[in-house]
Write the structure tokens for this entry.
Amino acid sequence: MIRVDDSGPIWEIRIDRPEKAGALTEAMLQDLADTLRTAHSARALILTSTGRVFSAGADLDAAHAGLATSPLWEEVSGAIAALPGLVIAALNGTVAGGATGMVLACDMRIAVPQARFFYPVMKLGYLPQPSDPVRMSALIGPARTRMILLGGHKVDAETALAWGLVDEIVADGSVVDRARELCADTVAAPLEIAHGIKAMCPVT
């Protein structure tokens, strides 16, 4: 289930399926895409999840029906990258597979120390979504991107920080609380200034 709190200037979108490690179904992806199309009024947006895993990617039961290669993944990540407000991924745990794309499309990524990052798309017999290697290479370089996508390398939080895959590790407290702190200046600034600065620092 996708839960949305749009009651204030900082929207929160939460993947709420801890019993399935945040695995995404087609309906959940469509819900995300539909929600993001309406989020242009948000001054800032936090993308997070419930439980110990951010998302295991595609629901494995649904993956065999073509979900792993659905254009919805690219639609979601593209919608995130197109938002004019600040978008922060508050990673409460591990990010795997197709869920990586939506995280890469955010402006910032903060994570708990237990987070891990892996994208076993080649092992599963699929190509990654087209924008994912481009955005990953922009953050960590082409060689490290090949390590993850071709070498099957699993990246821990400290390595992710050193490489630039995440921007901060939140060792104490809530990643969502920290994300809200990082949104505070953007929300307080004049709209045209906040949007203008983001436009000068685009996501690839």
Observations:
- Strands lie at 2-5, 10-15, 44-49, 53-55, 86-91, 94-96, 108-111, 116-118, 155-156, 168-169.
- The radius of gyration is 16 Å.
- The first helix runs from residue 26 to 37.
